[in-house]
Amino acid sequence: MDIFRKKSINPSSKSELSKNLKLKDLILLGIGAVIGTGIFVVTGTAAADYAGPAATLSFLVAALVVIASGFSFAEFSSRIPITGGPYGYLSVVFGEFSGWMAGWFLICEYLLAVSSVASGWSSYFQGFLTSVGIHLPHALTAGYNAQNGTYIDLVAAIIVLFITVWVTQEAKKALSLNNIMVWVKFGVIALFIVVGLFFIEPGNWKPYVPFGVSGIFDGAALVFFAFLGFDAIAMAAEEVENPKRDIPRGIIGSILIATTLYVIVTVILTGMVPYTKLGVGDPVAFAMRFVGLENVGTILSIGAIFTLLTVTISMLYSLVRLIYAISKDGLLPSFLSKIDKKRRTPVTATYVTGMIALFFAAAFPINLLAELTNITALACLVMMSLGVIRLRKIMGEPTTGEYRMPFVPVLPLISAAACAFLMTRLTSATWIVFSITIVIGVAIYFLYGYRNSHLNQKD
After folding, report:
1. Which residues span the membrane (predicted)?
2. Which residues pair with 240 in a beta bridge?
3. What pLDDT band is residue 204 in, cutting at 50, 70 and 90?
4. How far is CA 227 from the centre of its chain?
5. Which residue of 16, 83, 117, 283 has the lowest C-beta tally within 10 Å?
6. Does the CA dihedral 181-182-188-190 come out positive or negative?
């Protein structure tokens, strides 16, 4: 049994997908995936429960880890521009089993992200309906909880269904709504920054580190969630006009833009409101209401409702491309790699993935599994950082026109260690669930993937 058999280093010469995405589309895809619940929710939680005003440092710590990891993604995407992101990259350098596990971690991450954001969107939207006097039947307002009398989250199910149908469109069209909503998102954030600057009270920044240095690192482990999604860009490799040039630029560009916005918003937020009062679900809008600007707070809430759509679009788009790539190699059923001849998109994979996400979003209160999203993502980033070192041994130094990760192997080792350190800051319950996730992933590979892999057929 050879679980270290490797995919060909050379990407396929011909793709069935449309190649019409440009650098602007990639940056907006990354920002659409990254900036969502992080800036509208996690900023307040990080300040109130973990780091106080020093939440800005938590974001910077997390950003440094993410940027270092982003460098590894950039070099891989430049030198091996194939669909599947980490799954494809690690299948080339470490072998099929490692690639599958990286892909499995990403499937868990994206699936949970799509479902959880849809549930969060449902909460925002139901709050808006309530404010205008519309009330849904209680049984249809949340996931299954017989004690509370709820059985299905109808709004979450509807939004996942809508996003699923939308993502079946040709890539350029499917991402057009995402691009529009990203600009709306920029407008909402700019409104908060411009107005908030006039209501900063420097006294709210004292004490700056109320929970100590450990609080900063605990906050970093939490806010790492806010940066998840930048790897969505790598999933679009087969649909990019110039992947070797534009994917690295898209990854690094989206991370830098997101980091800048997170830090600015957190500085202003903790300056407007004492950090002890920020443990709310809508801290950005709450800050405006706190200083008496109810109308501005309402505008920010409505903006958040619309812009959270970008996260579900970006994540579902990326998840579908990942599953398409894995099934095309035989590790998942082949019908998932079927391409619609008219739209040139993996329609079957989109519908199957969308229905699974709909089930989780509608039936389960999955907020308790948020840390699982972080730990699966961090595990994948550890593998990616170590993979760059292996990539250099296999393919040598990057050539002219290919992105070069700086300070290899020192920076990749630091990046892997930093990701592992953040994993240790997560709870024991998260580690237990993560262990179960690993067992399930291994079982799928050996019970189905290994035997049906195209590499196995070649052997």
Report:
1. 26-48, 54-74, 86-107, 150-168, 180-200, 212-230, 251-276, 296-324, 345-366, 372-391, 403-423, 429-448
2. 21
3. very high
4. 7
5. 16
6. negative
Highest mean pLDDT (candidates 340-344, 353-357, 406-410, 453-457): 406-410
Tokens for 60, please give them.
């910077």
pLDDT at 16: 64
Task: Report the SS3 class of residue 406.
Answer: coil
Place of tokens 């709820």: 150
Beta bridge partners of 145: 150
CA torsion, ordered 136, 139, 144, 147, to nearest 10 deg: 130
Task: State both tokens at 82.
Answer: 């194939």
Q: Which CATH number fits domain 23-458: 3.40.50.11260, 1.10.340.30, 1.20.1740.10, 3.40.50.2300?
A: 1.20.1740.10
Q: What are the tokens at 273? A: 């409101």
pLDDT score, position 446: 96
User: Would you state the pLDDT for residue 53?
Assistant: 96
